[in-house]
Write a structure and sequence with these properties.
- It is a single chain.
- This protein is an all-beta fold.
- It is 0% helix and 55% strand.
- It is built from no helices and 18 strands.
Length: 240
């Protein structure tokens, strides 16, 4: 999962929301309610991830796109059939590439697992940034259980407005958090009109003042991101 600084993740590009406005950093009066991470127990995990708001079906590819001052950025994520065992848990692997006007700028392998309660845990990522086709940084990479990092939760089993939870737990490397803002949003993307969407506000203490809104649609997952500059990273296609 990319850091906030790299995320961008009526009319055809209009957004219809019940609260929150357009910008990722604006407040809406939501009172954060800390959600403590459950005790991690490898015995309490299932095989695969089938959360309604974060389904990971092997072979599925989603593409999100946004226009920036630098060009058109595309994020392509594919759920792989291969898995990775972390802390005794079999994790689903998502391979994500980010391109700018067709040139690769980031290549990432994300690892996810779902527990018997229904929480989807984020077990880490192997990420590389590229400049002019050459790898320049692996900053942000971490693996739960390695060098003090632990698993966070990418999607709560039962989201409730105000709940605030850690997405990543790698001190000084990856400390993204999310607050649930709304549960039944309507979002219009190039892919189509999507209802019943979860809205979160993601932020990190590593970059004070930086935040973005994310929207997750039932049966799909992430469909829209809006950052502080009102740049919209929108779902444009799903395959197969």
């Amino acid at each position: 999962m990319r850091t906030l600084r790299n995320l961008a993740f009526g009319t055809s590009f209009g957004l219809l929301v019940a609260c929150g406005g357009g910008g990722g950093g604006g407040g809406t009066g939501i009172e954060p309610i800390p959600f403590p991470l459950p005790a991690f127990n490898a015995a309490n995990f299932v095989v695969g991830v089938n959360h309604p708001l974060f389904p990971l079906v092997p072979g599925t590819t989603t593409t999100l796109e946004k226009s920036t001052d630098e060009g058109v950025e595309q994020v392509v994520g594919t759920v792989l059939a291969t898995t990775k065992v972390i802390l005794g848990v079999t994790c689903v692997i998502v391979h994500e590439t980010v391109t700018l006007d067709g040139d690769l700028i980031e290549d990432t392998f994300d690892w996810f697992a779902q527990d018997t309660t229904g929480h989807v845990w984020y077990m880490g990522e192997d990420t590389t940034e590229f400049v002019n086709g050459l790898p320049v940084s692996t900053a942000g990479s971490f693996e739960a259980g390695v060098n003090g990092a632990s698993a966070g939760i990418i999607m709560l089993a039962a989201p409730s407005v105000g709940l605030t939870y850690p997405l990543e737990v790698a001190p000084g490397i990856a400390e993204d958090m999310a607050t649930v803002y709304a549960l039944d949003q309507v979002v219009n993307t190039p892919y189509g009109l999507l209802t019943g969407c979860l809205k979160t506000r993601d932020f990190t203490p590593l970059e004070p003042g930086v935040a973005e809104f994310k929207f997750y649609a039932p049966g799909i997952g992430l469909v829209l991101e809006i950052n502080d500059d009102d740049e919209r990273n929108e779902l444009i296609s799903i395959s197969p």
